[in-house]
Amino acid sequence: MKVRTDFICELNQKKLWLRREDLIKEKVKGNKFRKLKYNLIEAKKNNSRSILTFGGAFSNHLYATALSGKINHIKTYGVVRGNEWKEKINESQTLINCIKYGMTLIFVSREIFKKKNVKDFWKIIKLNPSKFYVIPEGGTNELALKGCLEMLSENDYVYDVICCPVGTGGTIAGLIKSSITKQKVIGFSALNNNSLKSEIDKYTDKKKWILNDQYTFGGYAKSNLELIYFINNFKKKFNIQLDPIYTGKMLFGIFDLINKNKWSWGKNILIFHTGGKQGIEGFNKRQIKKGLSCII
Ligand SMILES: *Cc1c(COP(=O)(O)O)cnc(C)c1O
Predict the structure, then answer these.
(1) If you average pLDDT over every residue of the chain, what do you get?
(2) What is the CATH class of 30-139?
């Protein structure tokens, strides 16, 4: 599948290229398409099964699963973190869209949500897991990696550095696996999670990768004025929209490191725009409520 690559700019003798997974010619955009691709094929093999997955009220993964279910005529269930969302669905455009695409939402408390990988969980939520094709939170599993492997090809061997944002680590693990020896993969963490590096190590033996956690902006979905300003400026300059949760933080980090002469890797940099634009509307609504600036 051919995805467009845009040259962005040259900065301190480094050339920056953006791979536009956000514009992939599929209904589901970005890395979530890659991660769901083989999971959907697997789920379809067993017609009787619905898909069940997990996520927060603004999760790109929940949204992508709901939309994929609608397109592929597979029933979807989403376990949502936080009971309180049951009463305020209309405050989350993501949840509104999930329902519109036919997903049945199951709201659970944060405590119960944390237990989603233990056996008791299913008893608590009164569902039988064998009735579903279960996809973990964020969509990361072996089949997701298989899809993400396809994000890099032989044509990309001209790049010596590959960059992507990191949430649960499935995307970077796929990229690491399909990278070649002369390439270094740099992941920019979008959240604070001390075990992320070991999670990624579980999927690959390769060592030519780095996880940068200096640009999390305080944690998942956290932001500040500087980040919003950067995203809006990027849009004005290059006419490319970044999302505030993942791609904005990564590009902020890349520009910051290069500008401060702290970039010690290669000169031809391929940066993955992994999508996430569905979340901007909801993000802006929350910003307005707090009296903060929006993404243009
Ligand atoms: C989910 C997501 C990521 C993170 O992908 P992981 O495989 O969970 O690390 C990155 N960018 C965007 C836009 C996403 O929606």
Answers:
(1) 96
(2) alpha beta
